[in-house]
Specification:
The chain is of the alpha+beta class. The chain is built from 13 helices and 13 strands. Helix content is 31%, strand content 23%. Bound molecules: adenosine monophosphate.
């Protein structure tokens, strides 16, 4: 959608009655909670009735529900949603349920820059972006015959690490690979994982200053992945593999974490170069994003993925994190998004943060 279209749509919006909407899943409780705290009306888009679940969390419950038969149907209701002055907050499940093409077509003002989708979903382009910014990514192994160290094999489009496996030799790779699926092979980086949640505002200058706007560090998490994270309760991975039991990388939850303070300058430098490069490549990544990293024993960061919107790893911090507490008490990512919309609305800059 062009800036002109957005401007046209916003011109018809009642700016005093903006409604924050998202799909009822992923990080929606936090998004609704944050929007309510900032005085917005909220709308939960869902397939089937979800009221029963949200009744259990009154402070995370949207004011209204918008029930659809299928998430892809949202495209048929754009007029209705526009009449409700809706701004969509996309999260990982929102994009997945709608599908990337339909998400791009969706004619409703959406928080963030949709163009980023192209750069994060194509592994080659993601590498051009992140390595071009100066980050170190795990090495890619083009030919499986060259596997001479532990690697992680990733199937394209697999969500939540599903189907990923580890191999240490070509032989192991051959035994496990499903050749009908597209895959890539990455060096398995040894170290500790940190999933770092940033917020970039192109319109406010009250944080870590960039060439345009400023950057915040809101929180960090470590993902809990079944079965890899607890497999050692049964025996060593090598032992289990001999029995044909292979660890999997399916995300089931998120654990709060903080990083040693001496690494924080590097954390900001990484966020900075990612944003600066995004401004150059596609007009900028706007709002929340997450760098998925491994810190090695030499205290070097290797970045294996970027998520360009709110991630579920922010969910432990509905009432603030050890980092966001130093910005404003009780600040969640959901609330920070609502604040950005409120600020841009007041300054007549909504066009700068929506697409
Ligand atoms: P992803 O879908 O790329 O986020 O990967 C799923 C999970 O696999 C991550 O959360 C990590 O636990 C693990 N992982 C992915 N890439 C690597 C890597 N290069 N080295 C070590 N672990 C990795």
């Amino acid at each position: 959608m062009t800036k002109k279209n957005i401007r046209g749509m916003l011109a018809n919006y009642d700016k005093k009655k903006l409604t924050i909407a998202t799909v009822c899943s992923h990080s929606s409780l936090q998004i609704f909670n944050g929007a309510k705290k900032e005085g917005f009306k909220t709308l939960g888009i869902s397939v089937g009735e979800k009221k029963k679940l949200y009744d259990a969390f009154p402070l995370g419950k949207p004011d209204d529900f918008f029930i659809v038969k299928n998430y892809k149907d949202i495209l048929n209701y754009t007029d209705e949603l526009q009449e409700k002055n809706v701004i969509i907050i996309p999260h990982g499940s929102f994009v997945e349920y709608l599908g990337p093409n339909k998400f791009m077509e969706l004619e409703i003002p959406t928080f963030g820059n949709k163009l980023v989708l192209d750069w994060e979903s194509d592994r080659k382009k993601e590498r051009i972006w992140l390595e071009g910014a100066g980050l170190t990514m795990p090495k890619e192994i083009e030919n499986p015959k060259n596997i001479n160290r532990p690697v992680i094999v990733k199937y394209h489009g697999a969500k939540g690490g599903k189907g990923f496996f580890v191999a240490k030799t070509y032989n192991e790779f051959q035994k496990r690979i499903d050749k009908n699926k597209k895959y890539s092979i990455q060096e398995f980086v040894m170290g500790t994982r940190y999933y770092i949640h940033y917020f970039y505002s192109p319109v406010q200058n009250n944080a870590y200053k960039l060439s345009k706007g400023s950057l915040q560090l809101l929180s960090m998490d470590r993902r809990d992945e079944t079965t890899i994270d607890e497999v050692q309760r049964l025996g060593s991975i090598a032992e289990l593999e001999e029995l044909g039991i292979h660890p999997t990388f399916v995300v089931t939850g998120n654990i709060p974490i903080v990083m040693r303070e001496s690494l924080l300058p590097k954390v900001f430098e990484m966020g900075e170069v990612v944003v600066e490069k995004s401004l150059e490549l596609f007009g900028g990544i706007i709002g929340s994003f997450c760098l998925e990293t491994v810190v090695t024993e030499d205290l070097e960061f290797k970045v294996f993925e970027i998520s360009a919107r709110i991630v579920a790893g922010t969910n432990p911090y509905v009432s603030g994190s050890p980092y966001s507490e130093l910005i404003q008490p009780g600040l969640s990512t959901g609330r920070r998004i609502a604040q950005e919309i409120k600020y841009a609305n007041k300054k007549n800059l909504l066009n700068e943060i929506l697409s």
